[in-house]
C-alpha cells in the first residue's frame, strides 16, 4: 500500500496555490463542502493520504495543505506563531474563494484550527481536533519534539527520520517506508534545513505560553467540535483531551485504543467513518461503537 494507491479512484490535483504570495502546496480533490486538512509540526499533507478518498466519495471537497514553513510550501523569513499559521490558512481560503469550511486539524494543525474557530468563527462550519496541541506546555514533551526533529533534519541519516515518524505511531509499521522517504526528502531540502529553528519555535516555553489555548479561549468555540485522541499518544495523555472536551461547549470526545498521535492514519477506517458521519449536514455529534 502506497500513498498513490490510497488515492486510486478519484481525480485530484497536486499543485501550488498563491496564498497572499505564499506559494502553498495543496492536494485538492472532490466536489461539495470544503474540508481543510492540516498536519502537525514538521509534517506535510501526506499525513491525510488515507482519508481523502473516503471523504471525497462521501461528497466533500478536500484540501490537504502543507502549512506555512512546512513541506514544499514557502518558508519566509518571519515568525512561526499560531496567528502566523492561521493567517496563512485564511489567505488560502481567500485565494480559493472559500468563505466557510470544515476543519480537520492534527496536532499543530488542530491548534491552528482551534485558533481560527475562536478568532474567526464565521469561517468555520465544524471542527475536528485530532490529537490537537496547544492547550498545555509540557517541557519534557517539547524537548522530545525539538531534539528528535532537529537531529533528523540536521543529520543525513534516514534512520533518524524513521525514528521521528515511529515516535508518532503506536505500531511501527504505520510509519511506512514511503512516508519515511517522503519526510526524509522534505527534511533535507535546503530551505527546510534553514527554517528548522523557526519551525520549532513553539517548542520554546516563552513562545508557547503566549500562544497557548486556555480553557476560557476554548469556551468561545461555537462550531460543532469532535475531539479524537489516541490512548497511546506519546505527546499528550488522555486528561489533556478530557480537559479540552470539558472546555468546548457541546464537544464530543472519542478515544482510540492502541493508537498514538496520528489517529487519522493509524486507524483510518474507524476515523473516516466517524469523521464523515460527523460532517454530514448539518455537522452533528454521533455515536460510534468501540473496537
UniProtKB/TrEMBL annotation:
Keywords: Hydrolase
InterPro entries found in the cross-reference section: AB_hydrolase_1, AB_hydrolase_fold, AB_hydrolase_sf
Any Pfam family matching the protein: Abhydrolase_1
Molecular-function annotations in GO: hydrolase activity
Domain of life assignment: Bacteria
Domain annotation AB hydrolase-1: ranges: 35-266
GO cellular component: membrane
Listed name of the protein: Alpha/beta fold hydrolase
PANTHER family reported in the protein's UniProt record: HYDROLASE, PUTATIVE (AFU_ORTHOLOGUE AFUA_2G14860)-RELATED, MONOACYLGLYCEROL LIPASE
Record organism: Sphingobium terrigena
